[in-house]
Amino acid sequence: MKQGRRSFRNPFDLETPPGAEGWESMYPSYLLFGDELRERDEQKLWFFDQMHNPEPLYPFDLMMPESWLVSLNQYTTRVWNLPTALGIEHRIVNGYLYLSPNVIDDPAMRAEREPVFLERARHYFDHWDEIYDNWVTKATDCIERLKAIRFEPLPDREPTETVLRARGTTTAFDLLTTYSRYLENMHEMAYYHFEMLNLSYGAYLTFLEFCKAHFPAITDDLVARMVAGIDVILYRPDAELRRLAARAVELGVGDALKSGGSPAAVVGDLQASAAGRQWLDELEAVKDPWFYYSTGSGYCHAKRAWIDDLRPPFAALSDYVRRVERGEDLSRPLEPLRAERERIAGGYRDLLDDDDAAAFDSLLALSRQVFPFVENHNFYVEHWHHSIFFNKARRRPAGRRRRHLLPAPLRGVPGAIRGRGSVGARRADAQRVHVAAGGRPAPANPCRPGEVEPSACPRCTAGDRHRADHGDAVWHQHRDDQPLARG
Fold first, then answer.
1. Does one domain contain both 356 and 230?
2. Is 315 a member of any domain?
3. Which end of the chain is more exposed for a tag (fewer CB within 10 A), N or C?
């Protein structure tokens, strides 16, 4: 790209916002724009990854894009051998993540890769439903193994058994291997993330391009509506809220949910009646997995899931109860959507000759077949898995002496500033840069020792759950409520 025709600002010329000075120290040098690759990088298009990381990246959270960069590029270049692509690159500016694709322009290289890609992609498309069912099994198993990971506090001295058994390793080694399994689990899910995703998007984009070529005036929305009406689990969390709202009205406890009180206050009101307790039991029954639903993209630890903060789902429940009482049907209208998609598809199909109509039907059928993965992978990966992953990093071991399980560098403090000041000062430094660059402050902890009783805690919604999570302590702190980059 010639400088005179540049439409976007040169990333090397961007100013640092006041208060964010020194942001570069929070990230590894290979993710920054540098003089070594300046001439090359200035000629590439870099676009802001607003979908996944709309705010400046916390250092701890950086492990997520670094992981999926590897898995995405592996599938693009080494597994599928896409004829036109050699993966993407990352750069960070002022804490924000930018991406740039690497395109294959050499016709000979494209020609060499094309038959490899077609053979491999055809196998997946020919066995799509079977492979997808197996994918769900693999992803669920990965999540269950993540749940099973437990970090135990290091003792003041090694147990006697370490000596008597001549074990050779120590509990510190156990901690390191557990943390390794924790990270490996994240990398494993990153590979599952992209196993079928590129093919899914490719199938839909091929159908979109076909429609654009044959119907130049068609809109993206009309193309999308021809694939609508698919029952996907990504919408299941919201569907459960709608069902719970209807049950609340049916049980006569809707007023509590409409009260506008805090979740703790609403739960307290519901516990006062048999019908309310019945509704709370139904709520508990759906929390795993459907309340592992992030309020963000799933890539930032500061965006909590419903399982951690009941305020977002309870706000929705309040509205849904009112709508049920007005007589509205809150169920998702799948049948009207399906009828509408057939009407639209039929209208465009009638404009094509026989050969093009056959290609249209084939591409549309494939798009509808693969599209559930496009939607559903988001729940398994970004919501369910990542919510548990971040919570594992927050948790403290139970016991009278509560202490951080992971050392400060593993909780969000950049390696480049380790050892510079106190732990609290280093975390505050990361938070200062994050906010100055445009990010939102990490939320305050919902409860701290000596400040909130279990009965008033918005996440301890039942006595049994409190005892399971916290033991019999009167004053408590959640194991998973510590923001990873706060002092």
1. yes
2. yes
3. N
| Whether residue 262 is found in the same domain as residue 338 | yes
pLDDT for 459: 37
Within its chain, how far is the Cα of 236 from the centroid?
16
Q: Is the dihedral of CA 457, 461, 462, 466 positive or negative?
A: negative
How far is residue 139 CA from its own chain's centroid? 14
The Cα–Cα gap between 142 and 134 comes to: 12
**Separation between Cα atoms, residue 219 and residue 254, nearest integer Å:** 42
Lookup: tokens for 268: 């307290």
Helix (H, G, I), strand (E, B) or coil at 351: coil
Share of the chain above pLDDT 90, in %: 76
358 with 445, same domain: the answer is no
Q: CA 24 → CA 312, 377, 382, 434, distances in Å? A: 34, 33, 27, 12
Can you give the pLDDT at residue 275? 98
Position 389 in a domain: no
- On whether residue 156 sits in a domain, the answer given is no
> Is 394 within 8 Å of 299 (Cβ atoms)?
no
With beta carbons less than 8 A apart as the criterion, state whether 245 and 257 touch: yes
Indicate the number of domains in the chain.
3
pTM, two decimals, is 0.82
- End-of-domain residue from the set 126, 150, 171: 126
Tell me the pairing of strands 85-93 and 96-103: antiparallel
H or E element that contains 96 = strand 96-103
| CA separation for the pair 267, 289 (Å, rounded) | 20
- Residue whose token pair is 């992971």: 406
Q: What pLDDT, on a 0 to 100 scale, did the predictor assign at position 411? A: 38
Which of 126, 161, 176 is the endpoint of a domain? 126
* Same domain? 231 vs 365: yes
Nearest to 241, CA basis, from 323, 335, 137, 173? 323
Q: Which residues pair with 90 in a beta bridge?
A: 99
The two tokens of residue 77 are 């270049």
Give residue 413's domain range. 395-453+466-487
Q: What is the pLDDT of residues 34-81, one digit of tens each?
A: 999 999 999 999 999 999 999 999 999 999 999 999 999 999 999 999
